[in-house]
Amino acid sequence: MSLRSQRTIRQETTAEGVGFLTGADVTLRFLPAPENHGIVFQRVDLNGKPCVPATHEFLVPRQRRTGISGNGATIELVEHVMSALAGLQVDNCLIEINAPETPGFDGSCKAVVDALLIADFEEQSAEKPMLRVSQPLHVIADDGSTIDARPFGRDGLTITYVLDYGATSPISAQNCTVNVTPESFVNDICFARTFILDSEIASLKALGYGPRTTAKDLLVFSADGVLDNKLKTDDECARHKILDCIGDFALTGCDVQGYFNAWRTGHQTNHELMRQLQDTAAEHQTKSQVA
Ligand SMILES: [Zn+2]
Predict the structure, then answer these.
(1) pTM (two decimals)
(2) Domain 5-290: which topology?
(3) Residue positions annotated with a catalytic role
(4) How far is the CA of 225 from the centre of ligand 1 (A)?
(5) pLDDT tens figures, 169-196
(6) Ligand 1 geometric centre to CA of 4 (Å)
């Protein structure tokens, strides 16, 4: 098994948009960072400009999104930005952010990918740590959705996502499998937008979420299909779920290698599976040191 070199961006780059939760105008400023720095968010709008590393240690429990918190700062909805960075193999980056959440953009991470591609990349001398699936793992959520991991006969990360909300759902059953590389991420994944049912919107608006977000800003499914928007591919929702997996897996700080098969799962199960994977990898390491 060969480890690749870590990478950062060659120059600073920015991406701007509106936050889905608060409606804030948000600017992300991506800065090059030294090897082994990892991905760190910095809330430049707060006193002392606190930093929060995007790792599992700083995860906070959230419904249907991934948030991190520490050092007196919180950043919500980091998963799409993390996915863009991991998909392009950007390992070290400081992200200045002036709001409590990342921009929603069009519901995908294409805007971040475009910004990072403009910045270009720089190889560093340190190796990127790898987290390899060495034994089958399985996580089942309270609603019965599952994600499992299996060892793979070769290097790489492959994810299958099976989305099936039943015959009465306006979102059709679909599945997608991607062998994740920077090329496949750019061509097949980064454009896939997040989605919601129109029946779920009223309760979110009642909580004050999405004051500036409309059906044009993401995929909203009604009984008649997608509202005010058009699917980019028939399986765009399954592709978006793979985008989410890549972003969530990136919080390990490692290149995750193995075969993953997800059925209707979301962020919480992704994080639980990564905790199991890190635990088994640590056990494996301890046993081989003892041996
Ligand atoms: Zn998402």
Answers:
(1) 0.96
(2) Ribosomal Protein S5; domain 2 (3.30.230)
(3) 267
(4) 20
(5) 999 999 999 999 999 999 999 999 999 9
(6) 27
